[in-house]
Amino acid sequence: MADLSAVRRELRNRNLSSSFTDQESVSPQKLVVPFCGDIRGGLRPGKKITIMGVVNEEPESLDVSLTCGCADVALDVCVRFEEREVLRNACVSDLWGEEERSIPYFPFIPQQPFRMEIYCEHPRFRVFVDGHQLFDFYHRVTALTGIDTIQISGDLSLTKLN
């Protein structure tokens, strides 16, 4: 996970911020990977983030992180294509927790579109890909409204984010 910290720093240094809410999408010209955007008002139970994109032809990885500004990482999703794994973790007070990796299937296919939905519920995030539940991740960051940034990087093209 150490390489993700470097990516996060680079994203912040590039100042690639965009803001979006539940009702609006980020315009396609702003959907450049790596992407860093603000989640207006932070997260709360009942809020959903939808990420639509296309996996590159020869992908190695893709990463989606929900963070508290430049501090804690509430959810870090790391898709590793060679291993066919979807790793999840959180970093609170500069300490990474126990990594989770169990999934019922691997949904990402090179050169194919995908739709990832992240639902914020009271005790957890529920993550669906193409309408099928992939995993639950129980909150380790408890101040949900402090989760105000989304970062996306890796071998994909973004087509829609809302």
Describe this structure in words.
The longest helix has 13 residues. This protein has a 7-stranded mixed beta sheet, with helices on one face. About 12% of the residues have low confidence. With 162 residues, it is mainly beta. It is globular and about 40 Å long. It starts with a helix and ends with a strand. The protein has a single domain, classed as Sandwich (Jelly Rolls). It contains 1 helix and 12 strands, in the order H-E-E-E-E-E-E-E-E-E-E-E-E. Keywords: Lectin. GO terms for molecular function: carbohydrate binding. This is Galectin.
SSE layout and pairings?
Blueprint: H1 2-14, E1 19-20, E2 35-39, E3 48-55, E4 61-67, E5 73-80, E6 85-92, E7 95-96, E8 113-120, E9 124-129, E10 132-138, E11 149-154, E12 156-161
Parallel strand pairs: 1-2
Antiparallel strand pairs: 2-11, 3-8, 3-12, 4-5, 4-11, 5-6, 6-7, 8-9, 9-10
